[in-house]
Specification:
Elements (H helix, E strand, L loop, with lengths): L1 H4 L2 E4 L1 H4 L21 H6 L4 E4 L25 H13 L3 E6 L3 E3 L3 H9 L11 E2 L11 E2 L1 E2 L2 E6 L5 H18 L3 E4 L7 H11 L7 E4 L17 E2 L2 H12 L3 H12 L13 E2 L9 H4 L6 H10 L3 E5 L29 H15 L1 H5 L1 E7 L3 E7 L4 E7 L5 E3 L7 E4 L4 E4 L4 E3 L3 E7 L2
Length: 437
């Protein structure tokens, strides 16, 4: 499937394009700024763009007012269509953020309930008790997402709600040619709804991708042949940065072995979780790593490990941003034009290596060497074997292990690597060794 072969570039459009924090009702085609990013993203080695919420909302996009209309702060549907066309012409597939667990208080059907109460034909679209109340003092209680009453939970057991959502998705494919969806808080979605959604989207276009946002639990509950093709790998996200910060590569090595290792009990062999070092909800990787020299190395592990790698806009040139209580704005800044530099070039080289390697995209996983500051692991298919070697130390380090062959091609530099006498890893280095058969 194309999604398993690609690298995803994630954009939070309301932030990048400089939209006001609250919907001001003014239609401004800010989203057209993204047309100028298409070549930058393609040259980075990404094959898909994920756009976080773009439809009409109260404020941050996850409080939807209307699933069928682009948020006026970003422009019109025609503007979004032009951006998607530019992405497609650059060879990039497009995923939109599907926010189906909840809507905003400004959602048209909820406004009807607030006005007409029990007489509203949409009262069963939500989980409502007209004998109660909330802090919003509407004169009735309703379920919000995880206690946030600005986000009104939808009743996904109601066929009319499901049909409304499916009709909107069909329109997104027809108008914008989208190739998949990120499912916001997929861990909250009714599992029967997820099954219906997968059956429906399978009919829209070949290999329509579903990526679910999941934090904890057994990812197989949501990532399977009936639901999501992939889910966010938060378990390894934590290990990716903290292994470097605590000089404990055992953490990420053991996490990866637990998920993908050769033992029969490992969890996700043959699956392709969504890998990330940061996103629109967490502190930027350049701000969370205590040693800047580790920045390209953490991307090296991500591109080498099983899963679908992703890049969050701006992080490819080392943008910083700390998550702060009460607001995610520092994580979602306005950026007029993209930048490049040494980190950009390093990530582009890794993305190219992964795209050309069957083993890195589909291979099994096995830890070969683990120390506090070094990790070497193997990815293998019947056709190819690649070892990923990372040295997080400021000093060279020589590894001695049974490589199973005498030489390898180092894929980033296209040079020969000889295993005789040990393998010396330069300081702060990533290497991808394509092994002799």
């Amino acid at each position: 499937m194309w999604f398993y072969d690609t690298t995803v570039y994630q954009i939070y459009p309301l932030g990048l394009c400089g939209a006001p924090a609250q919907n001001d009702g003014q239609t401004v085609p800010r989203i057209r700024r993204l047309e100028g990013w298409a070549q930058h993203i393609a040259a980075l080695g990404c094959g898909a763009v994920l756009l976080n919420p773009v439809f009409q909302s109260d404020a941050h996009g996850y409080d939807t007012r209307d699933y069928t209309t682009l948020d006026c702060r970003l422009g019109t549907n025609e503007d979004l269509a032009a951006v998607c066309k530019a992405f497609h012409e650059a060879g990039l597939r497009v995923l939109l953020d599907g926010v189906f667990n909840h809507v905003g208080r400004g959602f048209w059907a909820f406004e009807d309930v607030r006005h007409n109460r029990e007489a509203s034909p949409y009262k069963d679209w939500f989980h409502i008790d007209f004998g109660g109340n909330t802090d919003k003092n509407d004169g009735f209680w309703y379920e919000g997402w995880e206690g946030h009453n600005d986000l009104v939970k939808l009743n996904l057991r109601n066929p009319a709600v499901v049909e409304h959502i499916f009709s909107a998705i069909r329109g997104w494919v027809e108008q914008f040619g989208i190739d998949g969806l990120r499912l916001d808080v997929a861990y909250c979605l009714d599992l029967d709804f997820l099954r219906q959604l997968r059956r429906f989207t399978d009919t829209l276009k070949p290999e329509f991708a579903l990526l679910g946002e999941v934090v904890h639990g057994d990812y197989n509950r949501w990532m399977n042949d009936e639901m999501c093709h992939s889910v966010t790998n938060y378990e390894c996200y934590k290990g990716l940065y903290s292994s470097f910060n605590s000089t404990n590569m055992f953490e990420i090595g053991h996490s990866l072995a637990r998920q993908f290792g050769p033992e029969p009990w490992t969890l996700y062999k043959g699956r392709h979780p969504y890998s990330f070092v940061d996103n629109h909800d967490v502190t930027r990787i350049a701000s969370i790593l205590t040693n800047p020299a580790h920045l390209p190395l953490v991307y090296g592990v991500m591109f080498g490990m099983p899963g679908v790698p992703s890049i969050y806009y701006g992080s490819e040139w080392g943008m910083q941003g700390n998550k702060t209580p009460g607001t995610d704005a520092p994580l979602r800044p306005e950026v007029e034009t993209p930048q490049q530099g040494a980190l950009y070039e390093a990530i582009a080289a890794m993305a190219k290596v992964r795209a050309s390697s069957e083993a890195l995209r589909y291979g099994s996983y096995r830890n070969v060497v683990l120390t506090n500051k070094q990790i070497i692991f193997e990815r293998r298919t019947d056709a190819e074997r690649v070892m990923v070697a990372v040295n997080a130390d400021a000093e060279p380090w020589t590894a001695h292990f049974d490589a199973g062959c005498g030489q390898a091609q180092e894929l980033l530099t296209d040079t020969l690597h000889d295993f005789g006498g040990g393998s010396t890893l330069p300081p702060y280095s990533v290497q991808f060794w394509k092994m002799e058969r």
